[in-house]
Specification:
heterodimer; A: about 110 residues; mainly beta; 6-stranded mixed sheet; 5-stranded antiparallel sheet; globular; B: about 120 residues; 7-stranded mixed sheet; about 0% helix
Chain lengths: ~110, ~120
């Protein structure tokens, strides 16, 4: 119940394309859903996050779509650039019983120039 | 934004020795810090939650006697890998929560690459 399932494992798109990464969770106690970007050899950096009472959130070229009933959420990257090539992790956080964040398996994105 | 640093950024040690990794919140006080472990091309796995002034809470399967965590102040947590073995080689990442910015947000350090020979 603590798992966050992420797909696809890897993704290749052309510059300007819109990669979409999907995640699903089981535990309805999760109440914060962040996305992180990680470059090789670096720590993850928060990109954008959403609470379950919101169906969509947009920050710059990054958009989260959230479907509470389906327990699914996704990240869309508009007008993708080669500099977006990185590993993206979805996550889910819970504060009941002590704050904890569970990460998805990650998606390696490569944007072709 | 809030900044978290780690030291060292990389370390090589011999099997059987101990290694200490520091995690500092530079511009905020972190009541809670987290330690993660990441193997190549894998996700981050939470090892333990460190609360200032109290004992760390370890995740299932993490040996508390092997991975010693100390959160002595609101800006510093340390992870000591005792009697390190090659299988402990990994990327160790800490994160910290800043209660002043929001209940959920946590900020990650740049990570420490540990190689045990």
């Amino acid at each position: 119940q603590q798992q966050v399932k992420q797909s696809p494992q890897s993704l290749i798109v052309q510059k300007g394309g819109i990669p979409i990464i999907n995640c699903a969770y089981e535990n309805t106690a999760f109440d914060y859903f962040p996305w992180y970007q990680q470059f090789p050899g670096k720590g993850p950096a928060l990109l954008i996050a959403i609470r379950p009472d919101v169906s969509e959130k947009k920050e710059g070229r990054f958009t989260i779509s959230f479907n509470k009933s389906a327990k699914q959420f996704s990240l869309h990257i508009m007008d993708s650039q080669p500099g977006d090539s990185a590993t993206y992790f979805c996550a889910a956080s819970i504060k009941t019983g002590g704050f904890k964040t569970i990460f998805g398996a990650g998606t390696r994105l490569f944007v072709k120039a | 934004g809030a900044v978290v640093s780690q030291h060292p950024s990389w370390v090589i040690c011999k099997s059987g020795t101990s290694v200490k990794i520091e995690c500092r919140s530079l511009d905020f006080q972190a009541t809670t810090m987290f330690w993660y472990r990441q193997f190549p091309k894998q996700s981050l796995m939470l090892m333990a939650t460190s609360n200032e002034g109290s004992k760390a809470t370890y995740e299932q399967g993490v040996e508390k006697d092997k991975f010693l965590i100390n959160h002595a102040s609101l800006t510093l947590s340390t992870l000591t890998v005792t009697s390190a073995h090659p299988e402990d080689s990994s990327f160790y990442i800490c994160s910290a929560r800043d209660p002043g910015t929001g209940v959920y947000e946590q900020y990650f350090g740049p990570g420490t690459r540990l190689t045990v020979t």
